[in-house]
Specification:
Blueprint (H helix, E strand, L loop, with lengths): L2 H24 L3 E7 L6 H16 L8 E7 L4 H13 L4 E4 L2 H10 L5 E6 L18 E5 L6 H11 L5 E6 L4 H13 L6 E6 L3 H11 L5 E5 L3 H5 L1 H10 L4 E3 L2 H5 L4 E5 L3 H14 L15 E6 H6 L6 H6 L2 E3 L1
Parallel strand pairs: 1-2, 1-3, 3-4, 4-5, 6-7, 6-8, 8-9, 9-10, 11-12
Antiparallel strand pairs: 10-11
Helix pairs in contact: 2-11, 3-4, 5-6
Amino acid sequence: MKRREFIALLGGAAAAWPLAARAQQRERMRRIGALMNFAATDQEGQARFAAFVEGLQELGWANGRNVQIDNRWVGSDADYIRKHAVELAQLRPDVILASATITLVPLQQATRTIPIVFASAIDPVGTGLIASMARPGGNATGFVAFEYSMSAKWLELLKEIAPSVARVAVLWESTLTVGIGQLNAIRAAAPSINMDVTPVDVRDAGGLERDIAEFARSPNGGLIVTGSPTAAARRALIIALADRYRLPAVYAQRYYVTSGGLISYAPSTTEPYRRAASYVDRILKGEKPADLPVQAPTKYELVINLKTAKALGLEIPATVLARADEVIE
């Protein structure tokens, strides 16, 4: 090879090398942890996680190509959640998805340096998990499950679909800040529509059955099931009790209605996971969770189960049906 050709070859290789290096860097395998407070067989949990993965794919992240996702399905057992939170932190991923407050707390206890994006936290400011909604500080940011003021709409909706209801049992989790906040919002709205409120703690399954049975002995009763991990885990029991005692019930999440409950008004359960993917993308590209504002829900859904309404002898008003995002027949 002539000297001039050799130098030209070296120059071409030198020019091509940075391009190849940049291509390799773009495709460098990144690591995402995920701590989901659902059983692996839970269809609702699978739908939420699928929305997260789809959101990542839309942003150019493909599991197994340029990102590895280490997912843990942990249910609602506190000890099991703590164990896997520590395990995920020890893997040193680039960022961790926390499905809810119940998984966010142990993750923050396990690491204060790995970025965490939560998909559905409850009152993260009031519980001390972040400094503020606008500038969360620390290593966690994400999306809140709802705003307390929305809880009053459940009471209004119950009265709209069952005008004879004058008493409501509010199923809440007394050890959670969200339980207190939602119950207080419902209590504040109750006098304006002449409704008596009876709190029922969901933590004791046996006590829950006794309390609802006692409540149902008097006429004109209904139920509101607030946001609660324990209630979600016991949703089959709660729906069965509402059916047994013929109590119109408004639920805090769509999956109660798809499981046989009457009606729900709540933020979309999958949309926050898709939005969480956008925050994970921004963090992987160099932004810090401390600088990403915590956001409230933007999409609410009204879901009605007409089969359950018929079993309860209720005729859902046309005005409510017209507002429904989903009607199960």
